[in-house]
Amino acid sequence: MNTQVNHDAAPVPLLELRGISKSFPGVKALSNVALRLYPGEVHTLMGQNGAGKSTLIKVLTGVYTPDSGEIMLDGKPIAPASTSDAQALGISTVYQEVNLCPNLSVAENIFIGRYPRRFGAIDWRSMQQQARALLQQLQIDIDVTAQLSAYPLAIQQMVAISRALNISARVLILDEPTSSLDEAEVNLLFSVLRRLREQGMAILFVTHFLDQTYAISDRITVMRNGEREGEYPCSELSRLALVNKMIGVAADTQALADEPLHDGAAVFGANVVEAQGLGRKGALAPMDFHIRQGELLGLAGLLGSGRTELARLLFGADKADTGSIRIKGKAKNFAVPRDAIAADIGFCSEDRKHEGAILSLSVRENIILALQARTGLLRAIPFKRQQALADEYVKALGIKTASIETPIGSLSGGNQQKALLARWLVTNPTMLILDEPTRGIDVRAKQEIMSYVTKLCRKGMAILFISSELPEVLRCSDRIVVMRDRKACGEYARGELDDTTVLQVIAGDAHVAGEAA
Amino acid sequence: MSISTPAGAARPATTSDGSVLHTILTHPLGRPVGALVLLLLVAFFTIPGFFHLEVRDGHLYGSVIDIINRAAPLMLAALGMTLVIATRGIDISVGAVVALSGTVAAMLIGGTMVMDNGVPTYVSNMPMGWALAAALGAALLCGAWNGVLVAGLGLQPIVATLILMVAGRGLAQLLTDGQIVTVYYKPFFFIGSGYLFGLPFSLFLVAAVFFITALLMKKTALGLFIQAVGINPVAARLAGIRTATLIFFVYVFCAACAGLSGLMISSNIKSADANNAGLMLELDAILAVTLGGTSLAGGKFSLVGSMIGALIIQTLTYTIYSLGVPPEVNMVVKSVVVFLVCMSQSSEFKQLLQRRKA
User: Fold this and answer.
1) Nearest Cα to Cα of residue B228 among A423, A25, A312
2) Chain segment B1-43, per-residue pLDDT in tens
3) Which pLDDT does position A107 carry in this prediction?
4) In terms of CB atoms within 10 Å, which end of chain B has fewer, N or C?
5) By C-alpha distance, which of A424, A423, A475 is closest to A446?
6) A360–chain B Cβ distance below 8 A for any pair
7) In A178-226, alpha helices (H)
C-alpha cells in the first residue's frame, strides 16, 4: 500500500529515483525501486538487513551502476559514475563505517582532495581555520591538527559529516551514522541536521533505530526484500506498523522484542573465568571479574568506559599490566589471543570489518578459521567436515548467503555477524565474549542472535555481553556490571535495574541503587 | 583454500552465457595462460622450428626445453615470492640471496686438479653435500633475518628486505674479493645443466619444490592462514593464528627458494659471479607473481599462476633474442608486453573500455 504524499513546500522532488533495479550474481538486490527526496526534509530509509538500503545508496552515489531505471536531480536525469561524480553533483554521503584516513590530521581529512590553495600551494592556515569553523558548527572543539586516529570513532564520524557538509552538498546521505554514537552525540547530530533542513538541504537518513527515526524524520520510505514497500509521512505511521512493514510478518514483533529473553530461572555453575586486579595502563583500572557457567553477564557503559578494554584483556588481544586470570581455577597467562582460545574463550570483536571478517575468504573459511587455528596448522580439518560445520551453522543461525563458498564480504552486515558468531560457536567455548554483536543490524537479526545466544547460555556457556543498547543489556543479562571512566562502578543482579537507573550510573549521576559490587 | 584457482573456484556461474570463451576469460588463470599461448604463437610463426624437439645423446633438445630450463631459477624464486606477496609482503633481497648462496657453494666446492693415475681430475674443496648445505644454510639465515625484521620488529617489508638486498650482495662480493669464482668440480654442474630421463635436471628440482609447496598448501591449513593474514592480519590474529610465526616462515621459505635458485644459476654458469648473478631477479619474480594473477595487496594467491608468469617472462626474452632484436631493445619490448598483460588484468581498465563501447 503506497501512500502518496504531497509535499507542499516543494512539489518537485530535488532527487528522484524511478524503477531502479540491480542484480548481483544469484541475487536480485533491487527491483523497481522508487524514492523521492524533497529539499528541506529528513527522509528516513528503513528496512531490515539485506532489504537493499545499502545497495540503493551505492546506486545513488555512483558506486554501482543500476541495471535499469533512472535518477533525476532537479528533474534532469543524472548517471553518477563514481562517488566523486555524485559529489560534484551535490550528493554527499557519510558511510556507516568511517571512510577517512586515520593517519592524516582532522583538517586534512575534511579537505582532502579539495585543499584550499594560496599561490598554488596548500594554504594550511586557512584550511585549519575552516576546519575549526566547520566543526564548531557541530559544536565540536578538537585539535584539528591532531591525527584523526587520536579521536574516538564518534568524533571521527562527526569529522566525516563535516567533510560532507563542506562539499556544499544539496543532498546529504547518512548511512547509519548513529550506530557508533552515544545519546548526547546523537542529539548533537540531530540538532545539526535540523539546522541543515531549515537551510533547505535534502537529507536521506538510514538507520535501524526506531526512536531516532521518529525523532528526526519527516517522511519514511520502507524497503523490504529489494523492493519499495511504501512511502509514508512520519506522523501517519505508528511504530508497530513500521516494524510490520519492515519485517512483513504479523503484528507482535515489537512486543516480542520487548519481552525478556530470560525467564530469570537460570542455574549457574562454578566460576569459569575469574580475574583479580586485571588492568592495563591507560585502558582499564585494575578490577576484579568473574563469570559463572551458564551466566549471561552484561557490561554496560559508554564508548571508552573500559568495557571493550576489559574484553580485550580477558582474550589476550591486549596484554594486561596487572592482575591475574584463572580459568576454571587454573592460573593462566594470555600473551596472545591464541592462548585464550586454547583456554576455550571466544571473542567477537565490535569492529566487524577490521577485526572480524576476512572479507574475500568464503563463508566456510571464515567459519572454520578459529577452529582450524586451534586445531593446528598441520592438522587441516577435512574439507567434508568444514562443509558440514559451515552448513550446520548457516542453517542454525539462518545466515542468508548464496552458498557457503560465497565471499563473506558480499553478505549483509547482519549475516556477516552471524557467520562470525558461528566462527566461535564451532570452537565450543567455555566463555564467549560478544562485543556489540548486534550493532548496526536489524531488529530481526538482533532478535535471532540474542535468542540463540541465550539458548547457548542455558546449555552452560558463559557469555560476556557488551552492548551500547541498554534495553538489550537489561533484557538479556543475568547480572550487569556498569562501567564508567575505565573502571567498574557498579554491579547489579537481574531485575535490580531499570533504564533510568542504569543511565544515571553510567553517567555517574547520583549514587543510586547503592554502590554495589 | 585454493592453490591453482585463486579467486574463482568457488564463484558461482556468473552469467547466463556459459560459453567456453567466457569461462576462460573469467577464470583467474585464463589471462596468464592466454598471454602465454599468444606469446608461443608469435614465437611459432616467427622462429623457424620453435616447437621442434629432437633427441641428442639421449637428451631432449629444442627451444621449448631451453626456455623451461632457463626459466627454472626464476620459477623457484617466484614460488617463494608468491607466498610472501600473499601475506601482503614483498622480498626484494631475492637476487642478493641468489648471489650469496651461489658464492658460498662455489667457494666451498671450487675444485682443485689432482692427478689420478696419471689422469687429471678435479676434486672439491669440501664434500659437495656439505657445501650445498652451507649455501642453503646461508640462504635460510638470510630468510630468518628478513623474517625477524618484518614479523618480529614490524619493519615494512620493502625496507626490511632492502637492507639484505644491499648487504647480501655486498657480503658475496667481499667473500670473492669482487672476482668471479670458477668451479671446476664436475658433479656440481649437474644441478643446473644435468639431465635426468632425457630432461633437464633443473626441471625436476622446480617440479619437486612446486609439488611440495602445493601439497603443503592443500594438506595443511597453511594456505588458508597465509590468505587470512594477507587479507586481514588483525582479524587473523584474533582468530588465533600465529601471524608473526607465519610471516617469519614465508620469508624463510622465500629465501630458501632463492638459495636453491642461486645454486642452479652458479652451477649453470660453472662459477659464482657475485656482481651479476641473480641481478634484478627479485623484480622478475615479482613480475611473474603479478602476471600469474596474484594481487600485490595480498590474500588470494596462485602458485600455478606464478609458474606461468615466469614462463611468460622467459618465453618473451627468448623470442626477442631469437628474432635478432638487439638486447637493448629487449627491456623496452618486455615492458610493453608486461604493460599489456597488466592492463588486461586491471578491472579499472576494463570498465574504461566498457564505458567507451557503451
Assistant:
1) A423
2) 444 444 434 444 444 455 666 666 667 787 788 888 888 888 8
3) 87
4) C
5) A475
6) yes
7) 183-198, 210-216
* Residue listed under C-alpha cell 662455489: B106
All cell numbers assigned to B41: 604463437
CA geometry: angle at B329 spanning B326 and B334, to 5°?
125
Sequence ranges of the domains in chain B:
54-321
Report pLDDT digits (tens) over B282-312: 888 998 998 888 888 888 899 999 999 999 9
Return the residue of A nearest to B242 by Cα. Answer: A338
Asked whether the whole model's pTM tops 0.90, one would answer no
Inter-chain CB proximity A372 and B224 less than 8 Å = yes
Beta strands in A76-153 (DSSP E): 76-78, 91-94, 117-118, 121-122
Q: Are strands B195-196 and B199-200 parallel, antiparallel or unpaired?
A: antiparallel
Please work out, in degrees rounded to the nearest 5, the angle formed at the alpha carbon of residue B338 by the alpha carbons of B335 and B340.
110
CA atoms in the 13 A half-sphere facing the CB of A78: 23
Domain B54-321 is found in CATH 1.10.8: no
Find the chain B residues whose C-beta atoms sit closer than 8 A to any C-beta of A. Answer: 1, 7, 9-12, 14, 219-222, 224-225, 227-228, 231-232, 234-242, 299-300, 355
On chain A, the residues whose CB falls within 8 A of the CB of B225 are 372-373, 377
Domains, chain A, in order of start with CATH, read 1-90+169-251 (3.40.50.300), 101-168 (no CATH), 260-344+429-517 (3.40.50.300), 359-428 (no CATH)
